[in-house]
């Protein structure tokens, strides 16, 4: 099955002498450079993780707009934006503008968020749950509002004496509107239930390298079952278009001495378990081996087989040149052997 292949950068920076990204400026500028290099290689997507109060990428829309202005073909996205921190109206304006700059290439991954660097960080942004609700509830409510306004909902009562003439009578929508953006929103789902919820709302599915351990089965099988449940819910909801589904993996072909030095010892063939926000989570394994071995191992990954898009998590602190070469190795030495190219 041919697949779209993209990279997912966590956007780390540190003062370590071994890091190629020492500052936030380094990360932002190198993110643009890597997206341009990836486009030249034939990679399909450039995606960026979003975290607050951390030395990682935290404000995605300036970066997405800049990447959109410097590229012409590659999809540009997030994995994921924490909707507990977002004003859905302002986000609709930002995403509409960034999507127009890119020519309609935005693929926004959003979710209820993951554990953060600080306790209840959303409160510092001015948000908190009303009585009887949780911030997971608020994230989903923000998402529903956001989806409505980017879909053209007209809800704001116009001033009878506006500064500028209104283009049409009646309530006004958020501007700018970017046609088609509503169909390019993805929900980062960590469970079967939230995947089904995303399907009912007509969002694409973004499944990461971990999920709630709901059966004790291997990670890739649980993830494949999540995808199956999502597709069933999508069909039941009666949506007309085909949904997009992505999974994320850490994959490193060992082609050069440098590859072996960095990842030659990372050959664990098993998943791991942990606790995330009070629930038991299963974390998928990393893949690091010679290309012929990778082809055999990846062929057995049921979730990759079920998804149309594969996002490759990259070690961004190793710099643009090294990460571009990793992407090239996957496209050249691995993807053809699996029928992805």
From TrEMBL:
One cellular component term from this protein's GO annotations in UniProt: cytosol
Annotated keywords: Monooxygenase, Oxidoreductase
Residue stretches making up the Luciferase-like domain: 10-256
Gene3D superfamilies, alphabetized: Luciferase-like domain
InterPro entries per UniProt: Bact_Lucif_Oxidored, Luciferase-like_dom, Luciferase-like_sf
Molecular function GO terms recorded: monooxygenase activity; oxidoreductase activity, acting on paired donors, with incorporation or reduction of molecular oxygen
Protein's recorded name: Luciferase-like monooxygenase
